[in-house]
Amino acid sequence: MKKPISGFSKLSKAEKMAWLSQEYTEDPQGTIELLQSYWHPDPATQQLHEEFIENTLSNYFLPFAIAPNFEINGQLYAVPMAIEESSVVAAASKAAKYWGERGGFKATVLKTEKVGQVHFVCAAPEGVVQQFFEEVKSQILADTDELTEKMRSRGGGILDLQLRDKTASIEHYYQLHAAFETKDAMGANFINTCLEQMAKSLEILAAEHPSMQAYPVEVVMSILSNYVPDCLVRAEVSCPVSQMAEAGMDGEGFARKFVQAVEIAKEEPYRAVTHNKGIMNGIDAVVLATGNDFRAIEAGVHAYAARDGQYRSLSEAEIKEIDGELCFRFWMDLPLALGTVGGLTRLHPMVKLALDVLGKPNAQELMGITAVAGLAQNFAALRSLTTTGIQKGHMKMHLLNILNQLGASSDEKEALVDYFKDHTVSNAAVEKALTEHRNK
Ligand code: HMG
Predict the structure, then answer these.
(1) Does residue 200 have an active-site annotation?
(2) Minimal CA–CA distance to 71: which of 351, 375, 356, 276?
């Protein structure tokens, strides 16, 4: 039975590696060599990475790729993507090319408001907390002036502060519900700092206020919300259905089947989850490459997908007659609180490169690019699903992973990639073909 360790965080990196490899691996020397083999050759860069988090032993690589040919609002982008799953980048690239030939993508930022809350309890009778809040609201805001000065000079700051009475759901529970504009920063630190100041002011002002002295305010917690339904971007594409002939179907036939696939994902949660997972293939890959917080994005996006009480497709599609012509439109509104300053954006050299490649976008531009990557991904997946099926293209891209798992040499890989240009890829088929190739 293993024993807990005390003071692990205080050990040196070498001591941590030695402890881990001894206690938790069957090959201590091999483990240490493996961890070391993933260190960056430049000690300063290695140290930079180690300092991002705690108890770092090594680095964990993800591929960094580019999906070119994204025409967004008339501008051409090569979109950086960090992701481990085969066929995602190929799919995004293929969809970018497809829509580049049909007018490109349009991205529109609809709103940029973020939210934070001070959760507190107070046993004062109904109306007393509201009355107190009305009297002290301007003071609570004034107490944050120093903290918000810089953000205000950039055009951001606190947009609104409300008291929300939640006593109907939890006894004595209220919130200070604040809206923020954080410009090019994702804003988590700014928002949390403001909220903690508001919480302090709230407690002090309540203790001094005659009607509240008998009912102390107890702050439970102060924290931003990663649910940002008012920080919203729309990505869309459209074209006449006559331009969409596909896989033996005429354009209208394909477009109708596509719309049907989206409608199914609107109504059927089992399908909606997979449909949205496909969207997040694109979103997460860009969010990671640009140094943003993919957990926050994931949590917020999925909550948004369930905003009416049922989990649904994030994307929508329709066919409409415009000037006597049937037109296909495919779009998605997505809550994306992204930053292009702060966090990892200036620290991680690859993140800096990703943002440079995108032309140093501001947060709103990055929201648009990211949403478009999600829409492109969704289009590529649905296009495959409603025509050839997903396995054909996905397995074609997965071929090298299968060959690597089977220990194929470079020559064998080259021969088998060539062979599978006109054969269907599956694990069994690759294993068989490799064996036959070796026996030749
Ligand atoms: P294809 O028609 O065999 O590709 O498609 P192609 O060889 O004719 O090439 C056409 C273009 O595709 C290329 O143009 C590239 O843009 C791209 P080019 O560069 O030649 O001018 N492309 C590639 N880009 C980079 N590396 C490559 C590559 N190959 C093609 N090796 C493809 C093949 C996989 C693109 C297509 O079948 C496809 O889009 N499939 C969908 C794959 C997909 O959605 N993958 C996501 C993972 S599956 C999943 O997790 C989500 C899902 O469950 C979601 C859902 O259910 O909704 C499906």
Answers:
(1) no
(2) 375
Domain count, the chain: 4
Same domain, 75 and 46: no
Instruction: Extract the tokens encoding 26.
Output: 């069957």
Rounded to the nearest whole angstrom, what is the distance from the C-alpha of residue 395 to the centroid of ligand 1? 10
Atom of ligand 1 nearest to the CA of 86: 47
Of 225, 240, 272, which closes a domain?
225
pLDDT of residue 277: 98
Mean pLDDT of the chain: 96
**Is 394 assigned a catalytic role?**
yes
Here the tokens at position 356 are 């440079």
| pLDDT digit string, tens, across residues 134-158 | 999 999 999 999 999 999 999 999 9
Cα 422 → chain centroid: 36
Sorting pLDDT into bands at 50, 70 and 90, what band is 264? very high
Nearest CA to ligand 1 atom 51: 278
Is there a single domain that holds both residue 318 and residue 402? no
pLDDT, tens digit, for every residue of 283-328?
A: 999 999 999 999 999 999 999 999 999 999 999 999 999 999 999 9
Check pocket membership of 394 for ligand 1, CB cut-off 6 A. yes
Strands (E), 292-420: 315-322, 325-335
Tallying the residues shown for the chain, one arrives at: 440
Between the CA of 164 and the centroid of ligand 1 the distance, in Å, is 48
Q: Do both 311 and 373 map to the same domain? A: yes
Ligand 1 in contact with 390 (CB < 6 A)?
yes
Query: Which residue out of 69, 76, 83, 94 has the highest number of ligand 1 atoms within 8 Å of its CB and is therefore the one to mutate?
Result: 94
Tell how far CA 313 is from the center of its chain: 16
The residues pairing with 164 across neighbouring beta strands, listed in sequence order, are 175
Kindly state whether residue 122 falls inside one of the protein's structural domains. yes
Query: Does the pLDDT of residue 126 top 90, yes or no?
Result: no
* Whether 277 is catalytic: yes
> What is the span of the domain harbouring residue 280?
64-110+232-388
